[in-house]
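Researcher: I've got a protein sequence and the SMILES for zinc ion. Could you write out the 3D structure of the bound complex as structure tokens? I'd like something to compare against our soaking experiments later this week.
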Amino acid sequence: MLINVATLLQEPVGHARRYAVEREAVAVPEAEFAQEISGSMRLIRSERGVLVTAEFDLLPVSVQCGRCLEMFETPVSVEFDEEYVFDHDPLTGKRVEVDVDEFRIDNQQHLDLSEAVRQYEESALPLRPLCRPDCAGLCPRCGHNLNTGPCNCGATASDDRWSALARLQERLGTEDGDGAPEA
Ligand SMILES: [Zn+2]
Ligand SMILES: [Zn+2]
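Model: Sure. Here is the predicted complex with zinc ion in place.
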């Protein structure tokens, strides 16, 4: 989403404009990022460019549950203040010092919110998403998704107990056998 800030850049520092944003597409193809933003933003002329104050709701994002590993959609919204700076002064055309990681206003005096939305979406997503607060997760033994009901490996668990007993009995039996062999 490109915003033309040419007229805003003619305004004195501190001058602000408010915009409503309705389902505008943003994309960063090299990061395989595509989203849609709705909400509002304020653009304020700053000394070095334009300060963007934004509040956007995004399309739900597909994430993987940290417990049951199922994919599910989570709503996401972002809020940020970012300054977009020009590397050439729009009035004098003189070069301006700019840090490499600063958001730029391009030579056509457009600014693109896509990369900022991508970064803020990334930090807005939960580190360990849960498909629901009480997600039952996976059975640690058989990997069955316990949200869909109990698993069938309970039988295996008791089998294991019995086989441990059987092994113990075997060992005891061998020791008995060492003493006095049965007739
Ligand atoms: Zn889950
Ligand atoms: Zn199981």
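Model: The longest strand covers residues 49-64. Residues 2-124 form one domain.
Researcher: Great, I'll pass this along to the crystallography team.
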